[in-house]
Amino acid sequence: MSRRQHERGSRFQMDIEQEVRTAAAAFRDNDVEASIAVAVRLWWSSRLRGRRFAQLLRQARRVTQARISVSAVERGEPGRRQAMPYFLAILRDLVDEDRRSRAADGSPVTQHGGMGRTAPFPRNPLPQCPSGTRLSDHE
Counting beta carbons within 10 angstroms of the beta carbon of residue 71, is it exposed (0 to 12), middle (13 to 18) or buried (19 or more)? Predict the structure, then answer.
């Protein structure tokens, strides 16, 4: 991998980590570092470019905030919802949806960070969305 590719991957990883930290603060996350690890794993396994993944993080934050506003997220006391697991489930659904739409369009899903690079964390499943919620309506 070239130095430039490594720097680009590192820059996007820092952007992604910052987006997750912002969401973690907004959604009262109890373990920010674990949430960052989950998001980075999802990014690497998705093979999406860093810029696109950061866009999906922002979209997931907006969707989660909107769902909190209409009381769709019920974990925690009103006004103090703990919505980070919900946020991560929304993010995973957005990533899956993005990949499906690119595959349907015939657009290549390119790998970030260089050819043959392995994910920085072992594969681990993401938390599931709380029961009774729908992830199909994202906006």
Answer: exposed
The residue among 130, 118, 115 whose CA lies nearest residue 41 is 118
- Overall size of the chain counted in residues: 139
CB 111 within 8 A of CB 5: no
Burial category of 113 from C-beta neighbours within 10 Å (exposed 0-12, middle 13-18, buried 19 and up): buried
**Cβ burial, residue 111 (10 Å; 0-12/13-18/19+):** middle
Task: Look up the pTM and report it.
Answer: 0.66
Residue-wise pLDDT for 118-127, tens only, equals 444 444 444 4
N-terminal to C-terminal alpha carbon distance within the chain: 38
Query: How does pLDDT run across 48-59, given as a tens digit for each residue?
Result: 999 999 999 999
Locus of tokens 């907004």: 26
